[in-house]
Amino acid sequence: GAGVSQSPRYKVAKRGQDVALRCDPISGHVSLFWYQQALGQGPEFLTYFQNEAQLDKSGLPSDRFFAERPEGSVSTLKIQRTQQEDSAVYLCASSPLVIRGYTFGSGTRLTVV
Amino acid sequence: KNEVEQSPQNLTAQEGEFITINCSYSVGISALHWLQQHPGGGIVSLFMLSSGKKKHGRLIATINIQEKHSSLHITASHPRDSAVYICAVRIQGAQKLVFGQGTRLTINP
After folding, report:
1. Cβ–Cβ under 8 Å, residues A100 and A72
2. What is the pLDDT of residues A15-72, one digit of tens each?
3. Which residue of A29, B19, B42, B106 pairs with B74 in a disulfide if CB–CB is 3.0 to 4.6 A?
4. Cα-flanking dihedrals φ and ψ of residue B21, to 5°?
């Protein structure tokens, strides 16, 4: 596609529910990043893939967060047993090579009630 | 202290005014990015800088590597420029971006 596509755009989850957020990067983009943006704050790094390899997951806040990119294209961020503090916008970005910059998706706004 | 600090956090101005948003960082970087975020969350990349100055339309971005400081300027501001402007850096040797908290800009007609 022409851009980075994220789905769903909005997700309301009950506390304790599992959620899965999807990111379709630009075709051919090797690098894929997930960021979490709390209300009124700048995005914070969660995890990074180079093709199918998860090279950095240092930003995942707990073991309830899990990300995968099994075929080196589409990525899924899964949050188990959601908590209210997980409410945020989850942003995906992809890049062919980071020295050439990044393209961001529109994000998924997760609200945990 | 955050690695990337922006000022001001909020800025309201009248249409036509010259706008400056500042970004300071405390780490060695490979590149600095200025990004624009409209309500609804999507982020658009405005500039990527490693030195000097770039201009695109009414937007100008400058960086001083020695002082670890960058500025984003908007000339002849317009209500459609209202958005959150975010400074982000790619730390040397890393792939990820580290973001500032953003500057919420409102341009009144």
Report:
1. no
2. 999 999 999 999 999 999 999 999 989 999 999 999 999 999 999 999 999 999 999 9
3. B19
4. -120, 135
The rounded distance, in Å, linking the Cα atoms of B49 and B71 is 11
Q: CB–CB of A69/A56 below 8 Å?
A: no
pLDDT, tens digit, for every residue of B55-72? 999 999 999 999 999 999
Report the residue from B31, B40, B43 with minimal CB separation from A104: B43
Inter-CA distances, A1 with A45, A90, A99, B29, Å: 24, 20, 22, 31
Q: Which of B77, B80, B84 shows the shortest CA–CA distance to B39?
A: B84
Which residues, in sequence order, are bridge partners of residue B48?
B33
Whether B95 sits inside 8 A of A44 (CB atoms) is no
Q: Which two tokens stand for residue B45?
A: 């990349």
Token pair 């955050």 is found at B2
